[in-house]
Design a protein that fits this description.
Elements (H helix, E strand, L loop, with lengths): L7 H46 L3 H26 L6 H25 L5 H6 L3 H30 L12 H4 L5 H7 L6
Helix pairs in contact: 1-2, 1-3, 2-5, 3-5
Length: 191
């Protein structure tokens, strides 16, 4: 029984909107968790690590970069497992790249608007090695949900969780329902 008649494009449009909102929500959660953890790490770096050990700014940043990467990996894994994100490369790349966009906007806003001496001093005072490694950590942050698929393949070989979506494109991993498909399934063929 069909409750209302509509074309497939309406269902596809609504499904695309639902997927987009799901991706935006997950990427914002991933960004918010990683950014708040990064703020906490930065606070301890500036308040405890740097003054006690008499480190320079680049030295203390180099010490905390692996910790940033570890925290980002843990939050990406939390998001993937908690929200049961399907193992579809495009889906996970969309989550990571959108979260990277949120992170870049937050970093630029912090560097441009909150730095006391202005944005040009913020750029020119950055150590090139630390800046390059920081950009690498940000790139890993954006790719982390996608890169975790490699870890999940190893757990599949051990016999743990397996969803079966790893080789499908995003369109095949997410089911679509339309009136024409229901009619075909019920044996009725109009036209």
């Amino acid at each position: 029984m069909i409750l209302f008649e509509t074309s497939t494009s309406v269902f596809e449009l609504l499904w695309d909107i639902a997927l987009a909102l799901f991706i935006i929500r997950l990427s914002f959660f991933y960004f918010a968790l990683s950014f708040s953890s990064g703020l906490l790490i930065t606070y301890f770096r500036l308040a405890r690590l740097q003054p006690i050990n008499h480190l320079t700014q680049p030295q203390s940043e180099l010490i905390t970069l692996p910790l940033f990467l570890l925290v980002n990996t843990l939050w990406a894994r939390f998001i993937v497992v908690n929200y049961e994100v399907p193992r579809v490369g495009g889906f996970r790349l969309a989550i990571g790249i959108l979260a990277l966009g949120f992170m870049l906007v937050a970093e630029l806003a912090g560097g441009i608007f909150m730095y006391e001496k202005g944005w040009s001093e913020w750029i020119w005072e950055t150590d090139y090695v630390v800046g390059g490694l920081g950009a690498g950590v940000l790139l890993m942050f954006g790719l982390m949900p996608f890169l975790l698929m490699g870890v999940e393949e190893m757990t599949d070989e051990m016999g743990e969780t397996y969803h079966g979506h790893e080789n499908k494109p995003i369109v095949a991993a997410v089911p679509t329902v339309a009136v024409s498909e229901k009619e075909f399934a019920n044996g009725k063929k109009t036209q």
